[in-house]
Amino acid sequence: MTFRRGGTFPSAAAVFWAALFFLLLSLPAPARGLPVPRLESADCPFPLPKDGSVAYARLVVPETRPYVPGARTVTLPVLVLKSRSKEPRPDPVLYLEGGPGGPSVAYYEDWLGSPILDRRDLVLFDQRGVGESEPSLACPEVRTARLEAETKSADPEEVRRILVASAASCAARLRGAGIDLSSYNTAESARDLADLRRLMGLPRWNLYGISYGTRLALRLLHEDPGGVRSAVLDSVVDPAADEFAVGPKNAEAAFERLFAAVSADPDAARAFPGLRERMEKAAASLDAAPVPARIRFPVGRKGTIPIRGSDLLDTVYGFLYEAGSIPYLPLLVEAVEKGDVSHLAMAREEWLYDDLADGLYYALQGHDEAPFSRMPGSGDPYDPLRLEREMALAFRSGTADDAANAPLSPDVPALVLAGGFDPVTPPEGSRRVAERLPKAAFLLFPGLGHGASVSPGPEKLVAAFFEDPGAKLSAEGLPESRIPRFVTRLHVTSAPYRLVTRVSYDRDLDVIGAILAFAGVFLAGAVSVRHTWKDRRRPGAFRWGVAARMAGGAAATLDGAYMSVLPMAVYAANAKDPSMLFFGLPAGFELLSWLPRLALPGAFVLVLGLSLVLRDRGISKRARVFFAVLAL
Fold first, then answer.
1. What are phi and psi of 304, to 5 degrees?
2. Residue among 170, 588, 250, 168 nearest 450 (CA)
């Protein structure tokens, strides 16, 4: 279709602005004394496609405004993913990451298949203090304290003291390095982006924010209203809401939606009656008697941590973010109820590996949100944001202006999206923001969680909205508009996911070695069965010795087959449904776990008959050694 909406420029102008940006990238890095802000060329710290489809630059802005010559500056990485179109639209899309503190540019590959690129360029950046930006507001003090707190088995007050002290320690170190923590907030980030638009020579662009990115988008609309053509706001963080105070109520409402959906699914209602009471009882049981579990810490060492009731609630809460995981949550509760906490341990381990910039998170929240927030009520049973407000205040990063928490209502076409199960930015809040915006449309996806627009159906609607912000869009007919059926049959096990993480991410040589060893055992067992079968009629062969050898070879074959087939089963399950892998394998794969059990009788027979095998001089010394090792 021909694009002529909203006074935008024809394709010749698009060529001009694109050429201007890439000319800037080709200039040599500027010397001291050049203007601030500025856009400058730089080598990308990670590999980019060699076809020129992705361009990298650095935005240099004042740390504190107004800028005084010679004062400290902040450098932000900027990536432009070029449109697949030969005539891209002149107004690119700026993506605003969540968190706050989540990196963006290092994950550019996640966007290469986006339908947005069919018509428009996509601009990614790391917010000040985040990812590849300089200075970095990473907080190793907080990470170390979390590891220490993980191993604390009893006193919650001691855990609180450790974590709050770590936040204060990180803030003191950053402040000692000359960093002005009061300048790392939403308003300054919005001004950075207004500078970026002007330096790129763009009359207007489109905003696409998810989670905290929506709060930044609303502030950018306040700071630079004339520079925005349209905005997509997905899972909205309402600046006017008290984020910390409403956290427990939002979590409770999300749990209620989950339990109601289970009750409304006939098969799930039969399989998981009284799920709420069962989850609460399982959590109370873990609180009364925490269960020890082994996990691997980011530093490489293994350790034992206590699994408590809060870990069950945290895990269910966390998986309500992810649409693909929601159908498996009743099975997770049932597994914990039966005493299997391995999935909770894996969730705890995973959350130690996030790449959020803790310093930026606490500096920003301590400036924008925490000073204006009240503590949750003492009667709230579960608080997913426990300690976050106190740690943010420990940063002492100043207090935001009135606009930071005002109910902003920019007069720009907007598409507001929400997932029905979202536990942190519930659909009611996103709807409330949409009602305040004069030109907003609101779409609810009942079957999704946090970040609805990353699912295939909503993703296409987002691209369609940017193409024509005035078009009437509907979620009707999309799979995401329905609540999915809950899974009632599954071989619940944490082994597949552990196998994948240990091999694919940790490159654990112990696990890789074990897999290769079992594969070798499978081959050796199969060869020994074949050999023994041929040897059974040899004159002088001990009949019971042959039987022991056959049984041992069969046992080795079954054991080896288990470890050899398991990776293939994991691969097949992952191809079908990646979310399933965390929770287990399809019910049919339960038969796989019987292979080692079937091997036990064979191993027992081999041990009993080992003396006959060793006395048989008709077989080679090497074979006798093999069967002796196999028996052991």
1. -105, 130
2. 250
pLDDT digits (tens, 9 = 90+) for 493-544: 887 787 777 666 555 555 555 566 666 666 666 666 666 676 666 666 666 6
Distances (CA, A) of 15 to 12, 88, 226: 5, 9, 22
pLDDT computed for residue 206 by the predictor: 98
Residue 326: strand pairing partners = none
Alpha carbons 438 and 413: distance in angstroms, whole number: 8
Q: Would you state the pLDDT for residue 349?
A: 86
Full DSSP string of 548-575: HHHHHHHHHHHHHHHHHHHHHHHHHHHH
In the structure encoding, which two tokens stand for residue 6, read together?
């909203």
Four-residue CA torsion sign, 351, 356, 357, 359: negative
Q: Which two tokens stand for residue 232?
A: 């997509």
Q: Which two tokens stand for residue 75?
A: 């450098």
Ranges of residues in the chain with a pLDDT under 50 are: 1-31
Q: Given CA atoms 309, 315, 320, 325 in this order, what sign does their dihedral have?
A: negative
Q: Taking Cα atoms as reference points, which of 60, 99, 163, 59 lies closest to residue 360?
A: 99
Inter-residue contact 149 to 103 (CB < 8 Å): no
Q: What is the CA radius of gyration of the chain?
A: 29
Query: Six-digit token pair at 222?
Result: 């306040």
Per-residue pLDDT, 301: 74
Q: Is the dihedral angle over the CA atoms 278, 587, 575, 453 positive or is it negative?
A: negative
Q: Write the DSSP assignment of 98-144 as a string of letters.
A: -TTT---GGGGGGGTT-GGGGTS-EEEEPPTTSTT-BS----HHHHH
Q: Which of 455, 509, 499 is nearest to 480 (CA)?
A: 455
Cα separation of 586 and 572, whole Å?
10
Q: Which long-range contacts (CB under 8 A, 24 or more apart) does 314-319 make?
A: 314/347, 314/384, 315/343, 315/344, 315/347, 316/255, 316/258, 316/279, 317/251, 317/254, 317/255, 317/382, 317/384, 317/423, 318/347, 318/351
The pLDDT value given to residue 17: 43
- pLDDT recorded at residue 379: 60
Q: Which two tokens stand for residue 614?
A: 């060793």
* pLDDT for residue 537: 67
pLDDT computed for residue 20 by the predictor: 45
Place of tokens 């909503």: 458
Q: How far apart are alpha carbons 490 and 579 in whole angstroms?
A: 13
What contacts 536, CB < 8 A, 6 or more positions away?
Answer: 546, 550
Residue of 172, 171, 164 lying closest to 145 (CA atoms): 164
**Among 590, 571, 591, which Cα is nearest to 581's?**
571
Q: Could you tell me which residues are beta bridge partners of residue 85? A: none
Backbone φ and ψ of 9, nearest 5°: -90, 150
Which residues are paired to 414 by β-bridges? 231, 440
Asked if residue 167 lies in contact with residue 362, where contact means CB atoms within 8 angstroms, the answer is: yes
Give per-residue burial for 228-265: e unless 16+ CB within 10 Å, then b: bbbbbbbbbbbbebebbbbbbebbebbbebbbebbeeb
pTM above 0.70, yes or no: yes
- The closest of 175, 164, 225, 169 to 197, measured between CA atoms, is 225
pLDDT value, residue 288: 93
Query: How far apart, in whole angstroms, are the C-alpha atoms of residue 401 and residue 219?
Result: 12
